[in-house]
Amino acid sequence: MPPDTQSGVKPPDTQSEAEATDDTQSEAEPTDTKSEAKSTGTRSGIQPTSTQSGAQPAATTSGAQPTAASAGDTIESFSLKDLRGLRKDYTRRPDESIISWLVRLWDAAGEATILDGTEARHLGSLSHDPVIDQEMMREASPCSLWERVLGSVAQRYLCADDLYMQQTQWKTIEQGIQRLREMAVAEIVFSDDINTRNPDLVSCTPVMWRKLVRLGPQEYSSALAIMKRDETEETVLDMAKKL
């Protein structure tokens, strides 16, 4: 009877417990590994470590959801159809000056249209100026179309006066506001202040206002001259509301 007691109780229980433990570990480990591999998106799936864990999935590189490195905002990728639509809307017209085109581009796109280098190249020739178009495609990392255009125009022209020369006389209030906003864009192109990218928020200087008066109808000159005082600091938007 003693041999039956030893063989029937201790060995089977010990082995079954060991096998159960092994089964539990073997079932737990693959399951945990798979769950970690799915959650973290790691390519190996063999040795998921704490540095490749799913604690910060947004920091992993992904072509589907690119993120802005500085602000952390999600950048939408454009399809070829989208880019064709942008090209149609943003291309400079045959009778449109560069400075007028810049104002229209700001109104249409602002700083919301973010493009990487490949997407910018797919847009093709927007300005119909080889120097500007080439510079727009140079930056590979994502940035706004507005930023690309401003930098490109700055490479094309020497100073703001080169853009001012493109302006024509104005006769209506709408045309006068357009000329004033064109001047603001010219100031932005050659400004070192990267925080001022909105032409409507540019300070309207006395020099800008005098240029506007000279471009306007003679019968408006006296009224316009007293509308802007040299000591006041008003934006282009403020002065446009007075016209």
TrEMBL record:
Q: Name one GO biological process term.
A: response to virus
Q: Where is the composition biased (Acidic residues)?
A: 19-30
Q: Name one GO cellular component term.
A: Golgi apparatus
Q: What's the superkingdom here?
A: Eukaryota
Q: Where is this region: Disordered?
A: 1-73
Which spans does this entry mark as compositional bias, Polar residues?
A: 1-18, 38-68
Enumerate the InterPro entries for this protein.
Fv1_restriction_factor (IPR053270)
Q: What is this protein called?
A: Uncharacterized protein
Q: Which organism is it from?
A: Hirundo rustica rustica
